[in-house]
Amino acid sequence: MDAEGNATGTFPDPLTDWDIIGTWTFADPSMEEGKGIANVDGTAVTWKLKDFSKDADNDVTLTIMDNKSLAEQLNPEVPPYALGMTANNPTKEGLKAVYDGVVVPSVVKDDYLYRNPDTAGSEMLFRFANLNPGTYNVTVFEGRTTDSNGRFGKVWVDDIKGLKAPATQNTGNYSGVNLDVGGVATPVGQPRTVTVTLKAGEYLWFAEMEDNSGGISGMIIRGVGAATPSVGVLASAAVTGPYTAATDAQVDAAAKTIKVSATGSSRFFRVQGSPKIMSTSLAAGVVTIKYE
Questions:
Q1: Phi/psi at 230 (nearest 5 deg)?
Q2: 31: which of 143, 180, 183, 283 lies 20 to 30 Å off by Cα?
Q3: Gap between the Cα atoms of 51 and 222, Å rounded
Q4: Phi and psi at residue 83, in whole multiples of 5°?
Q5: Tell me: the pLDDT tens digits for 140-195?
Q6: Is the pTM here over 0.85, yes or no?
Q7: Which neighbouring-strand residues pair with 125?
Q8: Residues 49/60, Cβ–Cβ less than 8 Å
Q9: Rounded to whole angstroms, what are the CA distances from 27 to 24, 39, 43, 118, 234?
Q10: What burial class does residue 56 get, using C-beta atoms within 10 Å of its C-beta: 0-12 exposed, 13-18 middle, 19+ buried?
């Protein structure tokens, strides 16, 4: 800033691959960055998110609401209900980082949002809707390097009500302060990743746990391939078992076939690791099983 308060110096490039949410209130959800839309009774605000992957899953939304029941537990007479969230940037390290394979610009890492009011023990609830079924890495981070008590949250999968939240935090400390070594500042941050799997119709939830210091700088939701289950075949001389691994089986994962020798005596087979057998055939003393 110059003597007259005008911004000077080099400005960062405009962010084109991040959804930005600045200071907002339930009464005015679009007062800064982003285009939030409040519900009728002004208790939740929803933003439409962009999918920056190749999947183009562009119907995903984020809805943020107060954990009102928790606020009422904190002070039954005068519950500290949330008015919205406030943006802040007390430390400006100016260092970009890479979290879960994603480049995080310094302007993303260093800024953060916190609950207004930031009553210790309260929570803001984030609900993500319309994510495609699959497995995701959910990475949260706070760049502030003076958050001496750390920052924690809860990540879980639930229905639209979100009543199955973990009893305690499950992210670990994602602030820019390493509490394990006496609160040493960590300018590159300490992102924490929780991996979840969503089925059709399920929602991803995050609880931003307020402790009267710091907030959340950002979140990365990245789809990851689910582990491919190992497929094998069990064999038995009787249909009722017992079944043990067929040591002569040859599994071709690419072709999704299993070949096993047809011995002179009767053998019964069961395929494990696949939901369905598509076909079987016998040729030249070899049984070929095609699986899904």
A1: -70, 140
A2: 143
A3: 10
A4: -95, -20
A5: 999 999 988 999 999 999 999 999 999 999 999 999 999 988 889 999 999 999 99
A6: no
A7: 65, 207
A8: yes
A9: 8, 10, 9, 18, 63
A10: exposed
The tokens 């285009």 sit on which residue? 35
Q: How far is CA 286 from CA 245, 247, 281, 282, in A?
A: 17, 14, 8, 6
Convert 223-235 to b/e letters by CB count within 10 Å (16 or more is b).
beeeeeeebebbb
Which structure tokens are listed for 172? 């670990």
| Segment 167-176 long-range contacts (CB within 8 Å, at least 24 positions apart) | 169/209, 170/194, 171/140, 174/140, 174/141, 174/142, 174/150, 174/216, 175/142, 175/144, 175/147, 175/150, 175/151, 175/214, 176/91, 176/93, 176/142, 176/143, 176/144, 176/145, 176/147
Mean pLDDT across 281-289: 85
Whether the Cβ atoms of residue 86 and residue 64 lie closer than 8 Å to each other: no
The residue-averaged pLDDT of 32-44 equals: 88
- Give dist(CA 180, CA 25) in Å, integer: 35
Q: CA 177, 62, 88, 124 torsion: positive or negative?
A: negative
Distance, CA of 36 to CA of 99 (rounded, Å): 26
Q: What is the pLDDT of residue 30?
A: 84
